[in-house]
Design brief:
Elements lengths: L6 E2 L2 E2 L2 E7 L3 H12 L5 E4 L8 H4 L31 H15 L5 E2 L4 E7 L4 E6 L2 E10 L21 E4 L13 E5 L3 H10 L5 E5 L6 E2 L8 H9 L1 H23 L1 H18 L3 H6 L12 E2 L3 H5 L4 E4 L3 E5 L2 E4 L4 E3 L2 E4 L10 H4 E2 L6 H5 L17 E3 L13 H21 L1 E6 L1 H15 L3 H4 L21 H8 L7 E7 L2 H4 L3
Parallel strand pairs: 3-4, 3-8, 4-5, 6-19, 8-20, 9-18, 10-11, 10-18, 11-14, 12-13
Antiparallel strand pairs: 1-2, 6-7, 7-8, 15-16, 16-17, 21-22
The structure holds flavin-adenine dinucleotide.
Length: 506
Amino acid sequence: MLQTPSRRDGQPSRRFKFAIVGSGFAGLAAAIRIKQSGDDDFIVLERAADLGGVWRDNRYPGCACDVESHLYSLSFAPNPNWSHEFSAQPEILAYLRRRAQEAGVLSRINFSTEVRRMTWVESAGEWSIDTSQGSYKARFVFVAAGSLSNPSIPNLRDLESFRGQVLHSGAWPEDADLSGKSVAVIGTGASAVQLIPKIQPIVARLHIFQRSAPWVMPRHDAPISKHKQEEYRRHPRRLQLERGKLYVRHEILAFAFRHPIVMRMGQRHTIKHMHGAISDPRLREKLTPNYTQGCKRILFSNDYYPTLTRPNVELIAAEATGVTPQGIVGDDGIERKVDIIICATGFNVKDPPYAHYIFGTEGQSLANAWAGSPKTFAGTTVHGFPNLFLLNGPNVGLAHTSVILMIETQVEHALSAIRYADRSGRMIVEPRADAQARFTSWIDRQMRGTVWTTGGCKSWYLDGTGRNSALWPSYTFTFRSRVAKARRADYEIRGPQYSPALASRP
Ligand SMILES: Cc1cc2nc3c(=O)[nH]c(=O)nc-3n(C[C@H](O)[C@H](O)[C@H](O)COP(=O)(O)OP(=O)(O)OC[C@H]3O[C@@H](n4cnc5c(N)ncnc54)[C@H](O)[C@@H]3O)c2cc1C
């Protein structure tokens, strides 16, 4: 647990040039970049008692990143000491804590401070922010509240009647004890595939409810030797080169998502991977996906398929629909007696909570403005919501590489847009409606023909209107070249005269 500072000159300071909501990868990237740019007038508001976002909350056994750590880290804060190609959750969390400390932003995080409402005040050219710890004012707000930070709980009939324990992979309790228990896991997505091989040896019985079979590719993990770590410490260029190689390898993958025919060719290898571990034809059939690889998130594991062949494991190709006091019932109608139900059911991504508490120029909420299908300019700003920057929000998610590449580009975009306002001496910067409309139609055009829209699945990438408003439809270098530097013509600069003295108003 970290401390809760944020006092300047001994007094609580409530007005800042920048407020950042959230202290996961995105919030910390913004805070560090702002500080590096020489601006010290910022605060980070974090609802939890520690930093780290998903890497604080996802403590389930086996939790790790699925993009290599040398790419899944901040470009301006490389880590020569990663112990594995794909590092585990404790190491990623320790990395974030260390970087925040070293960059001097830790003392700027107000922990246990939940943002509850943000209202735009046009006359002042700033946001009024209500939190669980009182109110703040900020000229610019970065919303880094995460897209995978609110666990989605499945709709199970009579859930409250269950006498055992219900856990969610995304809010894993430190004292969870599964040994010798009969356990049900609901879901076979990214978290389940990491979790299941780790818990199978210690539980008595494991019942896995699978709604649709995932594509599971081999995972090329390995320890990184002490010798290699030392080499990276001594020769940072070699570390950069390694990152560069990983970057290129992942970008090539993006081609397959954009051209499903290439993806279908790759499916043969994935099927071979599955058949190599599973010989039972009935199990093979259950595990063969009925949509094109990549339409839903591709998973990576070497031990998931072998685990499913163990005698204490049952894979149920059915949806969990309800519970009894001592068990769980699937839509196959069978009750299985269990002590613990683990929901590995992902997160509520379609309706981000922040959209309901942010109110823009017309007094409308972001959720109202979006009407179920988020639209942005450059994935980062929204017409009608001036001086607001969404990090890792709509249409910047990735299926092929590290999302940190996108987050860093977004922060650069935001800081360059803010510079236009600062230089012109005005308080307000807002994306033009026509720029946003052009950006959105470009996204929608790029999305056509991709595996996400043609792959024959119903994924969480698609919103209620059928648009893919979650993912970036192209390469990350395309995002960089289109977005990193904001164009003056895409923004309206207006509002009261800005004077640095305003920043220090009480
Ligand atoms: C298990 C797991 C593995 C993953 N692996 C990868 C990977 O390998 N590669 C990859 O690219 N991506 C991966 N991701 C995606 C991951 O979400 C991003 O990479 C990244 O960590 C998200 O960072 P973030 O800062 O945007 O959000 P988060 O990490 O979710 O942080 C958001 C923060 O905002 C805080 N917050 C939310 N609402 C409020 C509020 N109202 N007031 C105050 N604070 C608030 C939350 O408490 C949280 O600390 C993974 C996700 C999970 C869950």
